[in-house]
Structure formats: structure tokens, C-alpha cells
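[Solved] Which block belongs to which protein?

Original post:
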Amino acid sequence: MDRRGRVLVAVGVAAVTAVLGASVFGGGPVDRPVPPGGALAGQLDALRGANDLVRATRTDVGRDPALYPTAYGRLEAALATRHRGGADARGVPGIRPAPLADLARSDVLDTPAWRAHYVCLALRGTGPAVSGGAVAVLERAGLRKRAGREALGYLRAPDATDDALTSLATRAAFLQTLTCLGRDGEVPRATVRALAADTARAGQAVPALYAVEALRAVGVRARATRVLRGADARLAAGCTGADPIQRAALTLLRQRLTQRTYDCLVPSLSDSDTQTRWLVRRALTVGGEGGDTAGGTAGSLPEPIGRVRSDGLVAKSPAQLGTLTATYNAARALTASAQQKRTPYWLERRLTRMGSDTGLEPSDRLLLAMTCHRLALTCGPQADMGAREAARLRVPTRLTAENERRWYGVMAARAEFGLGCGRTAVDLPEREAGDSTALSARSLRIVVVLADAGCTAQAERLTEGTHLVAQARESLREGDLPTASDAVQAALVSEQSIPQDLWDDLPGLLRRYRDTRFPDLYASSPGGTASADATRAAYYLLA
């Protein structure tokens, strides 16, 4: 699961945008050699994550420090220290501004305001003087002004394309961040009142909890009315009645820990996600029912599985987890190689369980639906909801640099479900420097997803004057399999003549991209390790 998705509980358009491309398009009838891929389904085990989703790459995740685990890992460590009998977090190694600023600067996956949020959380696990320390770190990282501007801008005018839970979670995080930076006084009171009202209407515990806590810090009392309604029944339904992070948040909102919830939550202290572990540990320290402290054993809880390094930073989780984005790419590879009926049992089982999980985060529904649709699986109500959400998505009327991620995600969803082109305009794409007949990798992806969504006329117009077959050969020679694959798909769309010798040569040209240990999986560049996206790209060429 996307780490930000655990905070945002967002609709999954952003997740769709990461590496999705378009489907294969038909050209004229040509004779192609029988492609490899008979062992693809079995070899996907090499990309199997600990959560039974497909991993993006066969390369193991390293133990380098990162901003997100540092934020929540320090909070968890500080909490564990306090409940061992310490009065504060002084048992947690201190953190120096320079390395924390370096992490914030290099974390390009998150926006400045989200990076500021994680910096504030990391320093909250240190002790007093958070505001001054956070400002200094963000100034050093060159993020202070941009983070403040983004947070204030969103609070004043939330993104209209965000669903209610995404908006609530984002506003709560950004209000906490502005409070941390000493700028909460700049937030209009009407904005704060609206956040409190939306908290009462929220239907999930995690964003509601964060909103309640953010509002409390600025002197506003809010209640998670809808979340708390019926909470007793949900928590009494057994350990599968609620996702651990949602169960923990419900417990913190109710400030009451039952023995059943205690028993359900303890195993999640070994969860791979640091935010989940921190919330679960918080919940396990809440006083029990009727004065009985089910949480009274907090001092004897297991030690955190994560470790705060001597420099105060926390490394990425060593667990090798799969993602829905990579799983969707694997599904596309399976269908391109006509192996979808041999989808691994562990993957089918995981997808159908997710489809029946009432606690599934909305951020996962769309990609789950797209994956199940591609594999012709009936995955359950959550996937059905994702398919309905896809039908409601509106493509931006014009592709711009600002909306490109959302535009691409919506177009990919429309392509998957055959929803048609939609009304959208795309300007002439970028050409490769020094070669007016070649498109940039970005432009190729745009052309391919346009065509896959049914915008054939636009795709043809954007490829006028290009020599895409030559570009595909050149990309393969230079070691760029995904770009070569997109160039061939774009050539098919634009009805450029593809000589028979290219189809004949492709198996040989792709041989050096094969993973040395798992030859039916492919790497993006020769000699690399297999990735889900490169494998998808290869089978689109070989289909």
C-alpha cells in the first residue's frame, strides 16, 4: 500500500498515475513468432510481496533512512520509552537538523507540505521546541515557504477533485503542520469550523482521529460523530471486523480499550508500516473498560521492531511489500501473454480478499477494480465500487503540467473500463532534443494512453512526422525497454508501417533484458533485475 495512502485514505487516481501505460493495439495481420511467457505466471513468485501483491521490482528494499519511517518510527520509539517508565522521550536518540533536512529535500515522492508534516512528526518524537526546530529544518531544506504556502492554500480552498476523506485527512495534516510551524493563526476561523463539521460526518476512523487532534491543538473541540456511531458493534465483530489501523483509531477516539481489541491489536505491533505500529501502540496504552486497564499492560508490550539509529533517523521497513500499481502491471503482462487464466493462486486469493474487505481504504479501490477487470476476476463489492468510481471520474478538459498526474490516471482508468475518450485536449508533445522525428518518453506515454482510451484521432495527430519504429529500435539498443515498448504501441496507433523483420527480431532484441534467474521476467535495462513494469513492456512487444 502507498505510504501516503495510509494517511490520505484517498481515491486512487494518484496511485494509478505512477507507471500505467496503454494496452496493445491491433495492426494488420502479421506473422509473429510464438512469444515466450509460458512460465510467466509461475515466475511471478519472484515478485511476490510479503502481502501477496506483486512487488515493483525483484530488488530487495534496502535499509536506507527515509522521511516517513523516521517520522512515525520516532513517535513509536518515544511512546515505548515513556511506557517503560520514562517521563519523556529522552531515551530516543536525538536527531540533528542537517540529516533530517537532507531527507526532507530528497523525498521527491511527497509534496513540500507533506514533507513538512513528516518533519514535524519526527521532531514531535524528540521533545520540546518542535516549532523552532521544524522551521530551521525546513529552511535548511529550502521547503519552508513552499510548504506553508501549499498548506494554507489547501486549507482555504481544498482540491475539488479530492473525495471527502482525502480532503479531511489532508486538511487535518496541514492544520497540524501549520500549528507546528507557529502559523495556525493564519487559518481562517470559518475554515476551522468547516473542518470540525466535516469531522463529524467522516466515515473512517483514521482521518477523523487526526482531524479531532489537529482541531484540539487550535482550541476547537470536534467529535467524530458518524465514526463513533455503531463502533461497539464493529469492534465486537472479531479481529476481521476492522482493519488494525482503523481499530486502533476507533479505540483512541473512544478512549476505551476492550480485551478483545487488545488481543486483536497486539499482533499488529509487528506490522511493516510504522504509522500502523504507532497508532496500535497508542491504542494499547488506553485505559480499559470500567476502570479495568486492558491497556495497563502497556509497559510489558513487545519492544518496537523498528530501530532508531544513532543519528536519530529510521530506515525503511525491510519487509518486501507488493503494491496494486505493480500488481496491475503484472496483470497486463499476464493478459498480453495470454496467461491470465494461470494467474497465481496467491494473487487471486489476495485480490478477492481485498474485494471483500469492508475496511479497504478508498485509495485502493480503483486500482483493485482495474486489476480484477484486467484478469476477468470477480473480486467483490470493493472492486465493484472502484469500477463505479471510475465511471464518475471526469478527465480534465486540457492536459497541463499542473494536472498531468490526475489527467493520466483518469485516462488510464477510462481505458481499462472502455469508458471512451472523454472531452480533453492535448497540445503537440515534446520531441527529443536534436531529433524532430522522435517523441520524448513522456510524450509517448501520453500518446499511448490517449489511444487506449479511444482518442485515436488525437493520438494520430500527435505522432505526425515521427519515425517511431526507428525510435523503438534505437531505444532497445540504448537499453530502454519501456520507451521502446511505448514507441511500438504508438506506431501501431498511428498506423505507421511496422516491418515484419522487427517482429522477427524482437525476441532476440529482448533476450538481453531477461532476468538472469527468471527468464520470463524482464528488466528495464540489460543486466538489471526484473520489474513489473518492464515485464509488462516486454510482453506488449511480444504479444
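(Second protein starts here: sequence line, then its C-alpha cells.)
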Amino acid sequence: MRRLVSLGLFAVLASGAAAQDVPRVPRPDSTAAVLPDSGAVPINPPEPTGPAAPLSLEAAVARALSESEEVELARSQVDLAETQVDAAYAQLFPQVSANLGYQRTLASQFDTGNGLELPDSLQFRPDPTAPLEERVSYLEQNASSAAFAALGGLFEGLPFGQENAYSASLSGSQVLFAPQAFVGTRIAKGVREAVTYNEVEEVADVRLQVEQAYIQALVAQELVGISQAAIEQAQAFLDEERLRLRAGRASELEVLRAEVDLENLRPQQVQAQNAADLAVLNLKRLANVPYDQPVVLTTDLTLPPSAALADVDIDPAASTAQRAAILAAQAQVGVREQQVRLQKAAYLPSVALTTNYGQTLFPSSIFAFDGDPRTDWTVSLGVQIPIFDGFRRRAQVAEARVELLQAELQRDQLVEAVQLQVEQALREKRRAAALIAARQTTVDQAARVYRLTDLQYREGLATQLEVSNARLGLLQARSNLVQALANFYTADTDLARSITDATGTPSPFSMGTGQPLADPADAAPPAPSDTVPGTLTPTDGGTPLPSDG
């Protein structure tokens, strides 16, 4: 489960406040990274150009889902499964093909040159003009020779050795009984069902990534605002110390301490700004926004409404029963069951009906097309019976059963993991919801402590260290509140993701619908005036200014 890592913005303040003789730290440029050596030059990364485009949470999710490569890949898997279903059913339909051809015989073993010539003694040539007695006598004497003449006429005109031959044929086949083909269609449909659920899971994953990236960007930007408010408070305090120094009511050491406190905050602001820039870049990557396109996040990081903070009771087993990932795993189990049937079907015979119809023409020349074509038409019924294949089918059935058992175990593991994910997200959401109220109260108290401590310091009733510690406590309280909000909304997205059903309908997201966070600058003390702190003014009536302390 993804968790936002809180930034340690203000850990250096305590040591800086307690330092006594610390040299003045030069103010770094918050927009450039400087190399360690003294002769280094600032390295400024390229900044986005052009007008900033507004980007809401809903727009970022919609853009990611429409242009995400992961979603497109999942959809292509569904399209591939559809083609596999069509290919499986194609085996059950008639298969028809046609063939056209021309054959030119350049030399043939049946070509003997002059042909077969019978000797005169075997010739049978009766004279039809001879008298009847002579013709009868010729027949009686040469009757045996007539068989040789008939034999020669029997083979006359056969296609052997013909110079030109045109052929056209039409063949077809139809499966009558094929157990493996029938099981194959059920396997293809099971795979299609599984990849369809996987597409729903991929869409939900992309949605979760974009939502949590948006939360990280908002949190990072909020921490930048907190850092900037801390710098402004430290700058105002430094200005007051300089006024006190000119009035002779403060020492140079106190001014140096205030300067150190201010300069110690600047690296933290640079770090927070860098984290915010990286978070926005990550959001751009997920939403497929060009790098050079500046964006403005329009969905605010607000306090959750009371309805979102209310405790909900969710049954992990019931809420995850229709989870797309579990249904996909169940579909995989069904595919493995069909694989076992497929291997068992190899023991059964297959029956197919085939036919072939063709005509052949032997013209005297290539373009003559004379003569009558010869027709050939056959129909056959074939039965294929497997007898023995070296026990290969038995091994394939055993292998399919093992794969079925593995698929069932993987499904059970996934069910347990999803139920645990729901329980973890639900408990984390409850924990973050309980922390939000406490953190908000702590922020209010820390802001009041800082204002009172600052007023007491102006009247000489508090030390500079107490002011620094109060500022540190206020900044830490604000950071804790922002982190609690981030944890709550992250757990909210995790919970919504863990109970996503097979339809992929997203759960309502409460961020941006509650009260906005207080501006960090609102808790700052009043800006210093030209009046030296701790001195009397003509309107004071000769009495010190009252304080809340």
C-alpha cells in the first residue's frame, strides 16, 4: 500500500535556535542548485513555458484513462482474446477452398516419338469393298490381330504427356465430431472473460495511481506554503530584532540568532519546492501531460466532510466477492478445467467429411481452349482413431490437472490478499480520520501559543528561544495535519480500489468537497511597525500594552 513520506521540514530549527555563536549563513537561491565548489555556477533546470493549464482531479483521471499505455495494452489483450474466440469457432464451420492452375509439359516419359507401330502380320485392316466371302475369310484368319488394334484404341486420347493442361478444383471439409475443437471454443471464451476482468483491474490501477499522485502533489505544494509562511514569520521576527538592536534593547547576538533561524529555513523550502516539482512531474507523467506544459491543480486539499469521516462497516468477504481480480482468477480456474477436458478428449476419435470437385482441360495449344473438360468428383468420410502414442496423452492429462490445482491455489491466495487489503485500508482510514480532529486542534493551539509567545517576547516576558520553539511547534503541527489528510485520502483511495467491482464503477472521492485548510499566513503575528517593540506610544496612556499572557 502506497504511503506518502512526510518531509522533515523543520528538524534543524531546534539546533539552530540553541546555537550561540554561529556565523551568518549566506542566503541561497531557492530556484537554482549550486555545486559544492566555490567556483560553481547555478544550474537551473528548464522551466515550463506558456500559460498554465488548469488540471482538476477528475480531468487528470479522465486524461490518464483515455491515453494511458497500460490501459491501451489491456484493451488490446481483450481484442486479441476476441480474435482467438473467432479462430476457435472457425474450426467447427465448413472449410472450402478453390484452386486454379495451368501446366505446360516440356518433356514427358510418355512421349515415345513415333508412337507404337504394329508389324504387318499383326495389322487388322479388312477391306470393306471386298466381296462378302473374302471379308468373312479375312475375319476368320485375322481375328486374333483385332485385339491388338482395340488395345491401341483403348489408350488413345489419355491425358498422359499432354502439352497443355488447365485445371480447376473446389474442395471442402466439414468436421462432424471433434471433441478437442469443441473444448477449444470454451477455453477461448474463458480466456476472453479473464482478460476482460483484467482490463477492469488495469483501469482501476491507473485511476488509483493518478489519484494518489494528485494527493502527493497537493501535499507537496501545501508543505511549500507552510515553509514559505515559516520564512515570512522568521523574516518578520528578524526585522523586529533589528529594530530592537537600533533602539538599544537587543544585542547583536540576538539578531544573529534570528538570522540563523531564518537561513536554516531556506534549505527546507528548497527541498519542499523540489519535492513539489517532482510530484507534479510524476502527475504529468501519469496523466500524459507534456513536460513543458505548466499546470495548476484546481482540486484543493480540503478537510474531509463529516460524512467521509464517519465510520463505515464493510465485510471484506462480501465486498470483494465481485472484485474483478477475483473473477479473473476464477475464470482462469475454468480455463484450466477445460484444459483437462481438452487433454482427455485426445482419447476420442474424430470424424470429418471431405469432398473434391475438379475439371481438367487439355487444349491443343495454350490459348485454344478446344475440347471437352474432364470432370473428377470425390466424396469421402474419414474417421481418425488414436490407439497408442507412448503414454503421451496420459502425461498431458496429469500435467493439466496439476495446473488446475495451481490455479485454484492462486485464486484462494488472491482472495485472502484482497480481503486483507480491504481490512488494512479500512483500518488506516479510521486511524487517519481519528488523527485529523486531533491534528486540527493541535494546529489551533500551536498557533495561539505562537501568537502569545511572540507578544510576551515583545514585552520582554519571553526569550528568543521560546519564540523559536513556538514557531517550530506551529510548523510541525501544520505538517502533521497535512500528513494526516494525506494518509486519510490515500487510505480512502486504497479502500475504494480494493472494493472495485467487476463493472469498474469508482467509489465517490471526498477530497475537494470539505472545508479548505487555513492559510498558514493567518497565524502569523502582526507585521512590525516603526515603533520599537517594548516601548511606549503616546496612545498607551503611560501603561504597557496588555497581552494574552
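Accepted answer:
You had them paired correctly. Confirming on the second one: The first helix runs from residue 13 to 18.
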